[in-house]
Specification:
The protein has 490 residues and is of the alpha+beta class. The chain folds into two domains: 373 residues, 7 Propeller (Methylamine Dehydrogenase, Chain H), CATH 2.130.10; 79 residues, no CATH class. 19% of the residues lie in helices and 43% in strands. The chain has five helices and 31 strands. Strands 6, 7, 8, 9 and 10 form a five-stranded antiparallel beta sheet that branches. It is elongated and about 115 Å long.
Length: 490
């Protein structure tokens, strides 16, 4: 569910095209970054400018490209005309002050600013010093990796690995720079996933080349795949949270998910996983959610679509007008969206999207999960990190329960019937007066209580007498037979 879109002019003091939209965690303050290095913080409700900062560039150096890292890290980078890049991130300081009108309440104040996690000095990407035409970057902790297409057509990579001195605490950075094997056709987009292991290069209109860049000193081209037919063109692409899935959009509105699948020879291949309901127009932009497998898509007819990959759902579509959508953004908690159109307007809206991973297909049908070799029934409601998608297939739970109940009944029904016959016709009245009420009391107890007793009372006893308990299972039948035989000999 999405609230009505709030529309206002693009908040800016310095002219420039928007290259990135985001917000702070509470979805109260929006962040707009321009191609001229200005960062504007504005009220998401009405567009009122709250603060604006400009990126400090070296003298005589201009901005030539922009790259947004994984949303969960909130790091972005400006590619510069001298072959360097400047990494920055949005930062929000939250303070609380006592309300002068009510001393039992606090007033929360959010102060926006920008920070430079890799230092205020630009990092060298291209040793030749040529302008960075296209750029992709990921920054995590003390490690930063960037891949860029230079103005003279070279594909270069630079990795910066930080090392901390355990005694002094001083952090030193080591740089690795290398030129990557070229690809055919014009490069339109570079995508580096958050773990800084895999690089995807969109080129030639319909091709994606996958590079393994885990070894920063010896990256290699793994494969080149045509993701769309010859009469179709890739117009936008993004990587979902976790870094496993590649989402592409085309000039015909098609939206599809691809990720690497390991074959029988233990070799990964970029594989088409699922196609989503298409957009009405040419896909112009995409933005992934921060911590889930959802993503927002915009097209050239002014439409936006909110998708969820695992459940293969188009959750909602909304028209923002007739102007093409240029940039979209999603709040960290996925509870708000930001859309900028070609008419120099931004529209924002609150979103209620609590359980997008639930659908009939995700509950009852096989689902192809990330890092799996084929679609499977799987139940894994949570994981150690948000990198892995929750798996809510109730099929194994349902059929497993029925299977366990069936085999339990195969044993329980004969025992119950034969036990009832024995108690009714062969058991002595004195013993029956003890056994029959005991069984009826057990019937009256819920299975939860029986499990509670088994866990708290029976399990510790079995643990202390495990050898005797296991031997009793096998020895009791033989003991009855031997005792009966000896009884007949008397």
């Amino acid at each position: 569910q999405m609230d009505d879109l709030q529309k206002f002019l693009v908040p800016k003091v310095v002219p420039g095209a928007t290259v990135h939209l985001s917000s702070e965690e509470q979805a109260e303050i929006g962040v707009r970054m321009s191609d001229r290095g200005s960062v504007t913080f504005f009220d998401l409700r009405d567009g009122r400018i709250m603060a604006e900062e400009n990126v400090v560039l070296p003298e005589g150096v201009g901005i030539s490209s922009f790259a947004a890292g994984d949303p969960s890290q909130q790091a972005v980078a400006y590619g510069l005309s001298d072959g360097r890049m400047l990494v920055l991130e949005q930062d929000f300081k939250v303070t609380f002050q006592v309300d002068p009108d009510d001393h039992e309440k606090d007033i929360r104040t959010i102060t926006p600013t920008i920070a430079y996690p890799a230092g205020s000095e630009p990092l060298l990407v291209d040793e030749a010093g040529r302008a960075l035409k296209h750029l992709t970057m990921q920054h995590s902790g003390e490690n930063t990796t960037a891949v860029a297409l230079t103005e003279d057509g070279r594909l270069v990579m630079a990795a910066f690995e930080g090392r901390s001195n355990m005694i002094t605490g001083e952090v030193t950075s080591e740089r690795f720079g290398i030129e990557l094997p070229p690809v055919e056709g014009e490069i339109s987009q570079l995508l580096l996933e958050v773990k800084q292991r895999d690089l995807y290069v969109v080129h030639g209109g319909r091709f994606v080349s996958h590079y393994d860049v885990m070894n920063k000193q010896a990256p290699r081209l793994v494969q080149t795949v045509a993701l769309v037919p010859e009469d179709e063109t890739i117009t936008a692409a993004t990587i979902l949270s976790g870094g496993f899935s590649l989402i592409i959009g085309t000039d015909r509105g098609a939206v599809a998910q691809w990720f690497q699948v390991r074959d029988a020879d233990n070799v990964n291949h970029l594989t088409h996983i699922r196609s989503f309901k298409p957009m009405a127009g040419r896909v112009t932009t995409m933005a992934p959610e921060h911590f889930r497998k959802g993503f927002l898509v915009g097209d050239d007819r002014g439409n936006i679509g909110l998708y969820y990959a695992t459940s293969n759902r188009l959750l909602l579509t909304r028209s923002t007008g007739s102007e093409p959508v240029r940039v979209v953004g999603i709040a960290p908690r996925a509870n708000a969206v930001m859309v900028e159109s070609a008419g120099d307007t931004i529209q924002t809206a609150r979103v209620e999207n609590d359980f997008p991973e639930i659908s009939f297909s995700s509950l009852w049908q096989k689902v192809w999960y990330e890092s799996y070799q084929a679609p499977e029934y799987n139940w894994q409601s949570s994981a150690a990190t948000s990198d892995f998608e929750p798996k809510f297939s109730v099929a194994p739970l349902t059929f497993g329960t029925l299977k366990a109940a069936f085999y339990a009944m195969l044993v329980a029904v004969p025992l119950a019937v034969l036990g009832a016959i024995f108690a009714a016709y062969f058991m002595s009245p004195k013993m029956r007066s003890v056994v029959k009420p005991s069984i009826e009391i057990m019937e009256a107890l819920p299975t939860v209580i029986l499990g509670f007793l088994a866990g708290l009372w029976l399990a510790p006893w079995v643990d202390n007498n495990l050898a005797g308990t296991l031997m009793a299972i096998f020895m009791l039948p033989f003991s009855f037979v031997i005792a009966s035989y000896l009884w007949h000999l008397l």
